[in-house]
Amino acid sequence: MIQLDNKIANFTNNDIVKTPVQINCENVNIYYGDNHAVKDVNMPIHEKAITALIGPSGCGKSTFIRTINRMNDLIPIARCEGDITYRDINILSKKVDVVQLRKEIGMVFQQPNPFQKSINENIQLPLKFAGVRNRKKLKEITEQCLKEVGLWEEVKDRLDRSATGLSGGQQQRLCIARALALRPKVLLLDEPTSALDPVSTSKIEELLSQLKKDYTIVIVTHNMQQAARIADYTSFFYQGELVEFGLTKDLFTHPEKKSTADYISGRFG
Ligand code: ADP
């Protein structure tokens, strides 16, 4: 058994209930030109659970998570092969309606990136773009989403003020609320707390633990304690390969591979 830092050993998922696989990744290979960044990854993503992707910088975590809602399409030299099956479709297929896909599989990035508009507009613009016009409905969804991320009480009196006046942590919760407005099934988060202070980080971790009741969550984190605290499943990536995937508790206490053991015990990375 690996000797772990006490904080890492504080798992939340001792009594995990296994949920069905919602997205299945098979033989996923991703290239940037000649750089083979993600190598033959096979991994399930379980419904209404948190899956963390960990591993040293440059090992392909962001590349992999971005592929799940086709954000890599925006990078001209990126090329993806394999099957990412979601609701009987291959997400990587050219036939997929990417706009619809991103409604169902939303994404939140490392740097909070609210629109430079009012708090209201941050939630309502994507809804209007998706065809919601009814003002009462727009107000209702705004309130509901801000409540879901625990921001309502903090901002209900300043909904018409600029979102850029919020703190970094509040901005990130607003970005999560914006992603939730379109009622996605899956939420992808790429290092969502790495630009935040510890108090804001802890609020986001609590929020994600709540949200997994309703949403499937995939999170990239460079912070192993964070994975141990909130994730039900953890994937360890190294040099583009998925070295090990398993229940977080198993992976941290009984890693099967030596490189996983070396990484989680701080021997590299
Ligand atoms: P991680 O998220 O684990 O830090 P990345 O997915 O960012 O790793 O990077 C994996 C590899 O892909 C690295 O070699 C990186 O240089 C390369 N890469 C990432 N993003 C791009 C990009 N937009 N264009 C070209 N290469 C990239």
Number of distinct helices: 10
Cofactors and ligands: adenosine-5'-diphosphate
Whole-number count of domains: 1
Structural class per helix/strand content? alpha/beta
| CATH topology-level fold name | Rossmann fold
Count of distinct strands: 10
Overall mean pLDDT = 93
Strand order, largest beta sheet: 6-7-8-3-9-10
In CATH's first tier, which class applies?
Alpha Beta
Low-confidence stretches: 1-9
Distance between the termini: 20 Å
In this structure, how is the largest beta sheet organized?
6 strands, mixed
Secondary-structure element pattern, one letter each: EEEHEEHEHHHHEHEHEEHH
User: Architecture in CATH?
Assistant: 3-Layer(aba) Sandwich
What spatial form do the alpha-carbon principal axes imply?
globular
Roughly how many Å is the radius of gyration? Answer: 19 Å
Percent of residues in beta strands = 15-25%
Helix % is: 25-40%
Describe this entry's structure for a reader.
This protein is α/β, with parallel strands linked by helices and 269 residues long. The protein has one domain (6-264): P-loop containing nucleotide triphosphate hydrolases (Rossmann fold, 3-Layer(aba) Sandwich). The model is unreliable at 1-9 (pLDDT under 50). The protein has 10 helices and 10 strands. Strands 6-7-8-3-9-10 form a 6-stranded mixed beta sheet, sandwiched between helices. Bound molecules: adenosine-5'-diphosphate. Adenosine-5'-diphosphate binds next to strand 2 and helix 1. Adenosine-5'-diphosphate binds at residues 32, 35, 37, 55, 57-63, 75.
